[in-house]
Amino acid sequence: MIIHIMSLQKKYWGTSILVREVNHMNEQLPLQGLKILDISTMLAAPWVSTHLADFGAEVLKIEHPEYGDHARKYGAQKDGKSVLWKSLNRNKKSITLNFSKMEGQELLKEIIKDYDVMIENFRPGTLEKWNLSWEEIEKVNPNLILLRVSGFGQKGPYSERRGFGTVAEGMSGFTSINGDPTGPPILPGIPLADGLSGIAGALMVMIATYSKQNHQTKGQVIDLSLYEPLMRLLEPHLLAYDQLGIIANRVGNGSSQTAPRNAYPTKDGNWVALSASAQSIFENLCIAIDREDLIINEKFNTNKNRLNNVAELDEIISGWIVKRDLDQVVEILNESGAVVGPMYNVKQLYQDPHYTYRESFVSVTDDEFGEMRVPNVLAKLSKTPGKISTLGPKHSEHTIEFLKESLKMGDKEISELKRGGII
């Protein structure tokens, strides 16, 4: 690894840091050799293979020959192409195959023989309709791990329903606690269920892979719904209802579990997010705002008491913050040992030198978009870091290459597949 240290030291949000540029040379990636077949569409399931591809898994994405993955048209467009697609399907190769047709099904089975994992997110029953049930797949590759992502899971009264993350966010209970107390339930402004399922799916694939490699198990099916990972986030509320009969209400930017926790405006029109979940952090906050009396005040001396008097406590904290500019608030509170940070918009994320230092965004050159700054891999592994080598491929970019090199097909066979609408 080559590191170039820039001679630039900045004070930003109360923290003195040294900004650096980091370039990684080619290194051995930890999942190199793991072969993944991604026949999924849209967001949740493709994110699974992306997380694994970031750490070296070889991912072959299969799309429909005519319209491809619907995610190619998702969200903001540049020159008619989705900007999200480029990061969502990075480090992958794209081929096309119509496996709703018999010949395509047989070709897919041939491809499956050489892969460790397959990821799909069709409505339950669709693969079975295409003669691609687990029983059929297991015949050609008994060691395959099949991840099946769906709205409600493969079995159950709702299993055949169509399901997007939006519905999962509602039916998981998440929206019931999200929003202002006097307003309606609020859906998140991001694909929360999809993103969380992408991380959960990658974890499940690695658990199944570890089991196969270390406990001599064969392949298996992973049944992942979009709503169940979200339920783990709601665990405090679920258990409070199960054991105490408490139905959680919406609390805006506050919390039903701890106080203080809120968003507060600053004098210069910005906002900060503040949390003092631990008693010691609350005491640090009190010292910082010159209100040490709050530490022994019976209204605020415990978390339970603070929750019972949260409106009064918020008024005290807000009154101190609103008299000061953002930089001053963040500097004073951070130096005192309180926990606070500015509430960023997306432009500010790219400007923060801490994120630059940690390479939270990396620039990747793409044939269609030129240079693009994308979110980096999820975590920093000290010995086997991940890497983003390429951005999302063009539709069917690698089909001919794959058919010739992997399936040893000639030009005549490939032409016949094209004429038949198979590729």
Describe this protein's structure.
This protein is an alpha/beta fold and 423 residues long. It folds into 2 domains: 226 residues, Rossmann fold; 83 residues, formyl-coa transferase, domain 3, CATH 3.30.1540.10. It contains 18 helices and 15 strands. The strands form 5 sheets. A 6-stranded parallel beta sheet has the order 7-4-3-8-9-10, sandwiched between helices. A 3-stranded antiparallel beta sheet has the order 11-12-13. Helix 1 packs across helix 7. The longest helix has 23 residues. The N terminus is likely disordered.
What are the salient characteristics of this protein?
3-stranded antiparallel sheet; 6-stranded parallel sheet; 18 helices; disordered N terminus; Rossmann fold; formyl-coa transferase, domain 3; alpha/beta; 423 residues
Radius of gyration, in Å, reads 25 Å
What's the story with the biggest beta sheet? 6 strands, parallel
CATH topology of the largest domain: Rossmann fold
Helix content: 25-40%
Level-1 CATH class name of the largest domain: Alpha Beta
Number of helices: 18
How many structural domains are formed by the residues? 2
CATH superfamily of the largest domain: Crotonobetainyl-coa:carnitine coa-transferase, domain 1
Low-confidence stretches: 1-26
What value does the average pLDDT take? 94
Ends distance:
41 Å
The oligomerization state is single chain
Q: How would you sum up this structure in a few lines?
A:
The chain has helices spanning 44-53, 83-88, 102-112, 126-129, 134-140, 165-171, 192-214, 227-233, 235-244, 279-288, 293-296, 303-308, 310-321, 326-336, 346-351, 353-357, 399-405, 411-419, and strands spanning 2-12, 15-23, 35-38, 58-63, 77-78, 81-82, 92-96, 117-120, 145-150, 220-225, 261-265, 271-275, 339-342, 361-366, 370-375.
